[in-house]
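During the reporting period the student researcher (J.K.) took over the structure-prediction task from the postdoctoral fellow and processed the backlog of single-chain submissions. One of the processed entries is reproduced below for the supervisory committee.
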Amino acid sequence: MPTKQNSSGSPSGEPVYLVIGYLRRPHGVRGEIIMDMHTDFPDRIKSGRNVLIGEKHQPLTLDTVRQHNQGLLVSLHGVDTPEDAGRFRNQWVYVKASEVPPLPEGKHYQYELIDLDVVDDNGNPLGKLVEILETGANDVYIVRNESGKEILLPAIPSVILNVDMDQRTMKVHLLDGLIENKDS
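J.K. obtained the following structure tokens:
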């Protein structure tokens, strides 16, 4: 029986975790903490949501969630004082990738794109997609070949022609004057 290729970038068997926020500092006297949002789906961050906190992925549940300036004020189940909340200061908030709903046809989470084989519109291999930079206008895909040379591709429709998740390939059109990282 064939085994499913692990396309997440995580070692085989390990779950994939997606960042949804970053805990800053306690706020008020009831154990709330300020959280910066790091998700395109802020509506999914709500009371009752199970999350994982910090490098050790400590499981906790969001008790309350409310808007605060550009982020959120959240309280965690069992965390009732500013001192308790302070233990979680400056830590990332994760969810398991297996717990997020699928995206519409043709849309992909960023983690799913990592390690795709990238080819030009003639089928010539360019390397693997190794990183995605988020910029103001559009994302930029970093593609690295076997010798370590990198190509930066803007994630725009005229460049990204096709993504085939079954074949784990991305077909791209190289623009004239494409930026290459000469340091690699």
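The committee noted the following: Helices lie at 82-86, 110-113.
J.K. will present the remaining backlog at the next meeting.
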